[in-house]
């Protein structure tokens, strides 16, 4: 088990600004370095010791773990700038390194996602708040002040858990094709929700479900549904650990107070689309960190493994594979940093208007890179890459689960089309070769 001060000295195992040796960053300052060190210590104290066991057993994160993440500021850090005004009003929550909510920026949040992705146990990582990361932002941006004041603090403190329920058996990237629907009660005080959601991360143990449904008129509505009579959540077996709490969620005449509406009635599609930018961005940060962990293991293995009487790294073909892996990880990370910098400069409205296409293309680049990293790593590790235990464990888990990023939050094909379509809006009519 690495010490709390652990920082890998393996080439490319850490982002350049962490490595030392004269490397500098135009984006990061001392608060970011202290934040990363403190956050890494928090993870190694409360999360890392049981990760291997929890991944294998499929154990869900305990309420005590969630509360430790909440009061230790990890949950708030993964939501980021948008929740900091709320955090400032909750004295129990202490951000890592003693950072004040006013100091917090999108690079601090990026670091939080990276540190999670670098842990190497995908099911446990998602169980620790993937649903939370995409379920809470709509509450911050689209709920009424009364609903926000009631629900958000208890979630940020880790007392309650939340998830996002959009995808259905017949609707994934095609969000407009959802069939879950709602009608109004006779007295108009409640929505009555019926339908099915599928692949809902953290749905097994969530207390709240941010749910998209058709109606009650012509349009989509987004609302907060509390676990109550008529709400069911059945575990779904996926390629990774049940620790993620992936669920089939059912609604059977569920009564939802009209005060739980997020945004405007029948205009929920706008809320869903606005939420995707943050989701895709955090997937990119986490996925790149996972790729970097694999690069570290491959560099280490190439140096220690002997073949034909010499270190594996002596083989030109191995060095070529590593060069390709390092190239896609470092270039993807640079693009991520560039977009994060723009997020720091733009308002939420500007981000939605300008960054949707670039983030979509970044996600395509990152998940395509992960595909290559997984493939090359498997060839480098050989049989160990398909063995669940031992020195190739990180590679085995990665090659079994990297496709999650290619599908969740919008498939690669949708990302490619979206990115270019949005770019064409800025295509000058006079451009000619």
From TrEMBL:
Coiled coil: none annotated. Residues 266-422 form the Acyl-CoA dehydrogenase/oxidase C-terminal domain. InterPro entries: Acyl-CoA_dehydrogenase (IPR050741), Acyl-CoA_DH_CS (IPR006089), Acyl-CoA_Oxase/DH_mid-dom (IPR006091), Acyl-CoA_Oxase/DH_mid-dom_sf (IPR046373), AcylCo_DH-like_C (IPR036250), AcylCo_DH/oxidase_C (IPR009075), AcylCoA_DH/ox_N_sf (IPR037069), AcylCoA_DH/oxidase_NM_dom_sf (IPR009100). Gene3D superfamilies: Acyl-CoA dehydrogenase/oxidase, N-terminal domain, Butyryl-CoA Dehydrogenase, subunit A, domain 2, Butyryl-CoA Dehydrogenase, subunit A, domain 3. Pfam families: Acyl-CoA_dh_1 (PF00441), Acyl-CoA_dh_M (PF02770). One of its GO terms (biological process) is fatty acid beta-oxidation using acyl-CoA dehydrogenase. Residues 163-241 form the Acyl-CoA oxidase/dehydrogenase middle domain. The keyword Glycoprotein does not apply. Keywords: FAD, Flavoprotein, Oxidoreductase. Its cofactor is FAD. GO terms for molecular function: acyl-CoA dehydrogenase activity; flavin adenine dinucleotide binding. One of its GO terms (cellular component) is cytoplasm. Belongs to the acyl-CoA dehydrogenase family. This is Acyl-CoA dehydrogenase. It comes from Polarella glacialis. The lineage of its organism: Eukaryota, Sar, Alveolata, Dinophyceae, Suessiales.
């Amino acid at each position: 088990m690495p010490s709390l001060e652990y920082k890998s000295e393996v080439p490319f195992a850490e982002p350049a600004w962490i490595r030392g040796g004269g490397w500098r960053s135009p984006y990061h300052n001392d608060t970011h370095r202290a934040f990363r060190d403190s956050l890494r210590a928090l993870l190694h104290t409360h999360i890392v010791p049981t990760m291997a066991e929890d991944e294998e057993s499929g154990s869900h994160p305990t309420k005590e773990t969630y509360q430790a993440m909440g009061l230790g500021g990890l949950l708030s850090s993964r939501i980021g700038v948008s929740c900091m005004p709320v955090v400032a009003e909750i004295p129990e929550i202490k951000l890592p390194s003693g950072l004040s909510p006013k100091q917090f920026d999108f690079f601090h949040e990026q670091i939080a996602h990276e540190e999670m992705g670098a842990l190497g146990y995908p099911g446990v990582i998602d169980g620790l708040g993937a649903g939370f990361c995409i379920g809470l932002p709509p509450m911050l941006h689209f709920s009424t002040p009364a609903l926000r004041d009631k629900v958000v603090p208890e979630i940020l403190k880790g007392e309650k858990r939340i998830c996002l329920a959009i995808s259905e058996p017949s609707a994934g990237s095609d969000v407009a094709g959802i069939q879950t629907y709602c009608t109004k009660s006779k007295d108009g005080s409640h929505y009555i929700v019926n339908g099915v959601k599928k692949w809902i991360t953290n749905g097994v143990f969530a207390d709240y479900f941010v749910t998209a449904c058709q109606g009650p008129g012509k349009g989509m509505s987004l609302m907060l549904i509390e676990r109550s009579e008529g709400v069911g959540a059945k575990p779904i077996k996926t390629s990774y650990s049940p620790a993620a709490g992936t669920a089939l969620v059912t609604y059977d005449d569920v009564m939802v107070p009209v005060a739980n509406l997020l945004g405007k009635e029948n205009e929920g599609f706008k809320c869903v689309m606005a939420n995707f930018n943050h989701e895709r961005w955090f997937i990119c940060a986490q996925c790149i960190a996972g790729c970097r962990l694999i690069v570290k293991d491959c560099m280490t293995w190439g140096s220690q493994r002997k073949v034909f009487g010499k270190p594996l790294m002596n083989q030109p073909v191995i060095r070529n594979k590593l060069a390709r892996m390092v190239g896609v990880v470092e270039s993807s990370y640079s693009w991520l940093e560039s977009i994060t910098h723009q997020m720091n400069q733009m308002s939420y409205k500007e981000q939605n208007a300008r960054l949707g296409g670039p983030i979509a293309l970044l996600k395509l680049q990152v998940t395509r890179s992960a595909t290559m990293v997984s493939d090359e790593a498997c060839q480098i590790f050989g049989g160990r890459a398909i063995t669940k235990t031992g020195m190739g464990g990180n590679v085995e888990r990665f090659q079994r689960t990297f496709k999650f990023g290619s599908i969740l939050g919008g498939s690669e094909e949708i990302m490619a089309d979206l990115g270019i379509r949005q770019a064409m809006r800025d295509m000058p009519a006079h451009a000619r070769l």
